[in-house]
Request: fold
Amino acid sequence: MEILSQIVKLLLRIKYWLLFLPLIAALIAIYLTRNMQREYVVTTTIYTGIASGFTIESGVGGGRIDWSSVNNGIDNLISIIKSKSTLRNVSLRLYAQHMIYGDPQKDNNYILASNYRNLLLITPKEVRALIDKTSEEKTIENLNAYERASPTNFVYGLFNWNHQHYSYNALSKIEVRRLFDSDMLDITYSNDDPGITYNTLVLLNDEFVKQYEILRFGETNNVVEYFRNELAKLGRKLRASEDSLTQYYIEKKVINYDEQTKQVTALSRDYDLLYNDALLRYTSASTTVNDLEERIKDQIKAIQNNSLFLDKLNTLSLYSTQVARLETFQTDSLSTYSKTLEEYKRRLKDAENDLKSFSALVSDQKYTKEGIATTTFVEQWIAEIIIREKAISEMKVMEEVKKTLENQYTYFSPIGSTLKRKERDIGFTEQSYLSVLQSLNAALLRQKTLQMTSATLKAINPPLFPVSPMPTARRVIVLITYIGTLIFIIGYFLLLELFDRTVRDKIRAERLIPAVVLGAFPTRNRFKYRGYNKEYERIAANYLANAIIPYLNPKEKPDIINFISTDEGTGKSLLIDHLNEYWTERGLRVRIISWHEGITSDSRDYILSMNLSELYDYENEDVILVEHRSISKSAIPVGLLREASINLVVIRADKVWRDIDKLAFERLKTQAQDAPLQLYLTQASTSVEESFVGMLPPYTYFRKLVYKLTQFGLTSK
Reply:
């Protein structure tokens, strides 16, 4: 309760500080915020479709959503929106719009007239010349061409300096946040110009989609372009290989290598059989001819020596060769080729008949030694000759064919290996082509998925032009200023209360010194209540006199009261005068002894004295009021302290209790021993005085109310 009482008294003591200083601070805050900028807020909501949007991959494969990839995609999109490259393009387009559509006399949906005038003031002439009023794109091209990474370049500095509308610091205040775990992003921007705020988000919605497409498509476009180039190279190589194979087929006159080689092999086999058959017939005929020639030598020699026979035999051999050749290479029985074969067969038959008839004419012996008719042997010999000649002709033809087949073997053998090599090269190129084609299809699928993802970046809540500004924080600023100042003052005085060593009142004096405070004498009011100064002093003097009386001993006269101080100027003389006046009016014999007049503190008698009677002669006084010099300059003999009825240490309430005062008081307390030693405060405030004597005049309603509060008489009457 005591602490609470002290707090209330502290608040009442600093009531004027609490009343006026926060009010002054609030008025200053009101004045300083009179031109406070009003903020316009624009919001837009973007649907990304990264998690729930349909893509080719999700449509084909289905499956579960990879939330890690979704969160990564959302974070990447937010980073793209807030990236420097995106904001830089927005800044440049915004500046171009304002320079083209701004009006210095009238506000419009792009920029306020005042902001446009300020923009014209800071824009150099050479930059104004770059503005093409008819084309925003041309203006942006001119500004990009003019921009250089230099602190003196206006276009470069517009984004990198601290302009309130175009700088990175201003545009980085754009807030982008994901709405819970959805596919939607909420973008918010605030600025002092409604047109700039609105168009900033409009341009941002367009620009970040472009940046997103550039970043997302850049990688896939490079991959697609690579696969397309590789596919084109492999396609050209494949076509060249196929054309080379075709040309090789044409050059080597190959239609179907496998079938052709099969045909050559089959022909070789068939011709071998025919050759063996002809060889067998030749051998058989030759054996028979030799045997017959042995039997009919004479007839045979006559026939063989006949030139006509030889001619006919040659004719037979010739036709046999032609027939054998034609039969070997016959391919179509309906062609003229077959007619020729029939003709040669007919001629061969005629030659055989002619040869047989000729042999009959030239035969002149009827019988052999064995008695067999020679005509029979000649005919048989002629027949075997014909068979042999035909076999010889067939064998000659077969040998020609065999040589031809051997040439074909020689011809086709390298063709086969070459064809396999070329086909192997074509197969490898074709597999590479198909592999690259598959990779290209996968890249195109990914590209199409990204296109679909980019297509889903839609503003479901497009920016709306703000028609009214947001409420300013001016009222809050003023209120915070007022409350902050109030708290600061209270805190400041609380710290003073804790650490200040000014004596000030009874509680602090008893805590700092420590000793009992007997009372307090008020300081004189210079302004308020100055007409009550004498009344306050009279009341204080009466209280002091009444407070001292319990310490007086009427049996031992006189009662000595020592007025002591640790420093000069504490008001001891004034207290003595008031007490003298008070007790004299009531018939007490009072004597005043002061160091100013009677006591010589540096004399031998004073220093060695044990009591006051050794220095002065008593004249039947009731009370002796002794004013000593401050103990910081002169010591008081122990006897004088101990014989006193009360030792009253007078301290100014408005002075600090110093370490030297503490040491002097401790020494004084030790010297006094059992003699009463009390404190008395002078130059005290009215509230301190009231803690001893009660409420002081004037007794107005407000003062009574305040006094009740300080005494916690909340329900008293």
In short: Strands lie at 40-47, 175-178, 184-191, 458-461, 517-522, 559-564, 590-594, 623-627, 646-652, 677-684. Residues 505-710 form a domain with the Rossmann fold fold (CATH 3.40.50.300). The chain is about 60% helix and 10% strand. The two ends are 21 Å apart (CA to CA).
